[in-house]
Each structure stands twice: as C-alpha cells, then as structure tokens.
Amino acid sequence: MIHRMAAAAMPTAVFVVAVLVVIVAAQSTALGAPTFEDQVNAIAKDLMCPVCAGQTVADSGSQLAVQMRTEIRQRLQAGQTREEIIAYFVGQFGEGVLASPRPKGSGLVLWLSLPVAFLLGFLVLRRFLRRNLAAERARPEGPPPATPEEAEQIAQALRRLDDSR
Length: 165
Description:
This protein is mainly alpha-helical and 165 residues long. The protein is 70% helix and 0% strand.
C-alpha cells in the first residue's frame, strides 16, 4: 500500500522539481551579467545633467546629455572603469554633476542629516512614550472611594429622586 502511494506521488514530485529547475534557470539568465547598454545607463543615472533641472543624464533628452552618454560609451569601450568615467565628468563639471553627493565636506552634512534626524525622532518618541506609560501607571484605577459624608449626600439625593417620581 505504501509503495503504491509513493509510486503515485513520484510523477508529481518530478514535475514540481522540473518546474523549479526551469524557473531557476530563467531567473539566472535574466540576472546575468549586465549588457553594455546597462553599464552605460547605470553610469548615466549617477550623473546629473548640467543643463536640466533635476534630471539625470540617463533621463534627460538634452543635447548635452546625449553627448555625455556617447562619451560614457566611448570611455567604456576604451576600457575605462566606472570610477574613472565619473572622475572625468566631475573634473569637467564639478561635484554638482554627481546624482548623490560624496560623503565628504558639505556632502557629509547631507549624508549624516538623515540618520541624525532619524535618531532624534526616535529619542523624542521614546521619551514621549515612556512619560505617558509612567503617567498611566501612576494614575489610580478608578475614582477614590467616597467619604462617609459624601455617601450620605448621595443616598439623600437618590431618595429625593425616588420620592419625586
């Protein structure tokens, strides 16, 4: 009986394994080495277009951006590395051509501002929550018990209400 169940499950297991192999093979082909144009676009995305407001060289259609992409292609074909190409454009246009500033000088302020703001926000939130928790713990569960005089006043008020009905 067990052998029959195992024999019946075998084709299903083989099918599942075959499908997984095909999926993994397709993914590894898709994630293979980047093409030449992928390399050009990756470098162009790291450079800002000097004549376009807020656009990278990869996104811009300006004449200068087209010339910069051509220059990137030529330099890659000549065997230059990504760092050498970016250094060339920084030499031509200054640090402002970089899409993300380097973590030095005034760029260091930009790199550190987000983590510092995040830490300050966390500390303020932590302090606020701790204060509220301490206040909750210090607060009594319910109203304080009535004194004998207050209990008598409540009883008289209830009797008057009953009498007025």
